């Protein structure tokens, strides 16, 4: 207590000295050979320059603004939360620069009173927070097509977790008074493509959130600053960012992002639409593709998640699927949130294949690629959630397992 | 003191049951200015009209730089806007506006929201109708001189109009 008071006094004295000489930076550092702790303080923190994990950016057209950046899952310590700076991104028309002082949300359509909310208005509602995963509908699309990606960032990096803070969407809509014939809410972003998705009223009235906070601070611009939707367990694209309008209707809008995109083509040429929920999946993040192992002790770690609720069980096989062991889940297991798992392993230096599979609280079992492809074929694209095996070579290198054509 | 607390509680209960009194009413003009939703039945389509003949001019000045002559696209760089009709049930399906999109109104809506990619929201309704007509013409869906407007566009039957079915999941029964 006395010590921290002394430190505080010293710090204030230092600050006063700096103010009086009007020079930023660690003033008395010249006298001391080591940098003083005060010199290392920063108004907004950054990680050590020795820490290198980065998002991997991929453009999807020759124009900038269409593409994704993937979370380096293999370099992080798996848990509920992804650092905001490394949360995956998927944009269809860039990141708009919006000012919360002027940005507004319009609620209209089948409501008693159309209303305009400022960001300040929205922050005045009683706030709720919840931790959940967000995943692009196209995560791990390559493995279905038979072109497996070499590492877990490329294969599964379109998923992240965060603590989101905001207002239940139903609370905001009650302000306008929703008419009984309302069945869908069309959410629209203020990005250049005015991305629009239709959300069924059941989701709106249950756990949908209107969010302004991410991991305890304002949303990052690339996560929808200053306002976005979070629909726990639903495919990422529906969690509309830079939200500017909610249109309450008796039918879906059939926007391009719910017809031309985010629909799954079947073998018979028909496509499934309004495929909202992300089904359960899991992946080993360490050891995983691109990493190198020494023989001896390793802890197998990874993540599992389900849009339908809690992860109930993760099993790991260390011998190409012959036997499976039940992994330990990180407690508390949260519904529709990333769930870390672990299993101790002593690697004997022999070539082997490691993989994991999960079961969620509805009893849903994560399928193998063969089981999935037998039903959906190779062209459904979105919502590919099959088991991902990694091959450990005798020299310790870990790679993806090639898929027979 | 306790009476003060009680009245606070009463107020809180009232507030929970009632709206919070946040937000302000939107004027009809504000709603009209913001509301760009267009539905398959044509609700929301603006006044205006255009044909493929006029749309070709718009396309050549505003779209061809990316989407290429005849909307062929540039592989790996810009999507094709034509082709693929009849390919959806094959091993190599080609999804385009012509082969995959179920509603012509969605084509109008997409262009109106998002195109031209770098300078969206600049085309007047006549240009959007015209360039929509041109893309539909390139796909063999409408005639060169067929006028697209708020009445005719919703009546266009896209080749994949009945190509969509609801979510069938959970569709895979994994074994253990």
Walkthrough of the structure:
The complex is a heterodimer of chains A (405) and B (176). Chain A has 8 helices and 24 strands. Chain A is an alpha+beta fold and 405 residues long. Chain A has 2 domains: 89-272, Oxidoreductase, molybdopterin-binding domain (Sulfite Oxidase, Chain A, domain 2, Alpha-Beta Complex), CATH 3.90.420; 281-400, Immunoglobulin-like (Sandwich), CATH 2.60.40. In chain A, the strands form 6 sheets. Chain A has a 5-stranded mixed sheet. In chain A, a hairpin with a 5-residue loop joins strand 14 (264-265) and strand 15 (271-273). By secondary structure, chain B is mainly alpha-helical. In chain B, helix 3 crosses helix 6 and helix 5 (104-114) packs across helix 6 (125-138). The longest helix of chain B is centred in the first third of the chain and has 16 residues, at 2-17. Classes of the chains: A alpha+beta (405), B mainly alpha (176). The interface between A and B is large, with 67 and 55 residues. Strand 15 of chain A pairs parallel with strand 4 of chain B, so a sheet runs across the interface.
């Amino acid at each position: 207590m006395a010590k921290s008071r002394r430190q505080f006094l010293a710090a204030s004295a230092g600050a006063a000295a700096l103010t009086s000489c009007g020079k930023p930076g660690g003033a008395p550092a010249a006298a001391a050979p080591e940098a003083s702790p005060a010199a290392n303080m920063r108004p907004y923190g950054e990680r050590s320059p020795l820490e290198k994990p980065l998002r991997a950016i991929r453009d999807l057209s020759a124009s900038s603004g269409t593409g994704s950046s993937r979370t380096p899952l293999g370099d992080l310590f798996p848990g509920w939360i992804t650092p905001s700076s490394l949360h995956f991104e998927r944009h269809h028309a860039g990141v708009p620069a919006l000012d919360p002082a002027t940005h507004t949300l319009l609620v209209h359509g089948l409501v008693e009173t159309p209303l305009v909310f400022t960001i300040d208005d929205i922050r005045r509602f009683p706030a709720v927070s919840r931790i959940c995963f967000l995943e692009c509908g196209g995560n791990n699309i390559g493995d279905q097509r038979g072109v497996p990606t070499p590492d877990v960032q490329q294969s599964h990096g379109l998923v992240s977790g965060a603590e989101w803070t905001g207002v239940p969407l139903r609370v905001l809509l009650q302000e306008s008074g929703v008419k009984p014939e309302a069945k869908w809410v069309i959410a629209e972003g203020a990005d250049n493509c005015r991305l629009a998705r239709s959300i069924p009223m059941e989701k709106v009235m249950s756990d949908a959130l209107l969010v302004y906070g991410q991991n305890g601070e304002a949303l990052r611009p690339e996560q929808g600053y200053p306002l976005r939707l979070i629909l726990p367990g639903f495919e990422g694209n529906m969690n509309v960012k830079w939200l500017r309008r909610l249109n309450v209707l008796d039918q879906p809008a059939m926007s391009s992002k719910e017809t031309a995109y985010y629909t799954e083509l079947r073998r018979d040429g028909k496509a499934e639409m309004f495929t909202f929920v992300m089904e359960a999946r899991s992946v080993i993040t360490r050891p995983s593709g691109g990493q190198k192992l020494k023989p001896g002790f390793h802890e197998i770690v990874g993540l599992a998640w389900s849009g339908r609720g809690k992860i109930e069980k993760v099993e790991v096989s260390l011998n190409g699927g012959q036997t499976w062991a039940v992994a330990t889940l990180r407690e508390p297991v949260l519904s529709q949130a990333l769930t870390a798992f672990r299993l101790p392993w002593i690697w004997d230096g022999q070539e082997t294949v490691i993989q994991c599979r999960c079961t969620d609280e509805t009893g849903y079992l994560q399928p193998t690629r063969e089981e999935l492809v037998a039903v959906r074929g190779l062209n459904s694209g979105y919502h590919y959630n099959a088991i991902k095996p990694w091959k450990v070579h005798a020299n310790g290198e870990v790679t993806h397992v090639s898929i027979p054509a | 003191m306790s009476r003060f607390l009680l009245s606070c509680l009463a107020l809180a209960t009232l507030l929970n049951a009632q709206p919070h009194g946040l937000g302000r009413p939107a004027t009809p003009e504000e709603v009209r200015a913001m509301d760009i939703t267009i539905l398959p039945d044509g609700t929301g389509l603006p006044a205006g009209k255009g044909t493929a003949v006029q749309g070709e001019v718009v396309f050549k000045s505003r779209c061809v730089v990316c989407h290429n002559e005849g909307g062929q696209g540039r592989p790996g760089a810009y999507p094709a806007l034509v082709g693929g009709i009849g390919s959806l049930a094959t091993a190599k399906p080609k999804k385009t506006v012509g082969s995959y999109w179920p509603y012509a109104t969605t084509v109008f809506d997409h262009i109106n929201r998002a195109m031209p990619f770098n300078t969206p929201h600049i085309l007047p309704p006549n240009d959007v109708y015209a360039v929509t007509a041109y893309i539909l013409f390139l796909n063999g869906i409408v005639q060169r001189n067929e006028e697209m407007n708020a009445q005719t566009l919703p009546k266009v039957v896209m080749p994949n109009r009945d190509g969509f079915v609801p979510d069938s999941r959970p569709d895979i029964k994994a074994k253990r």
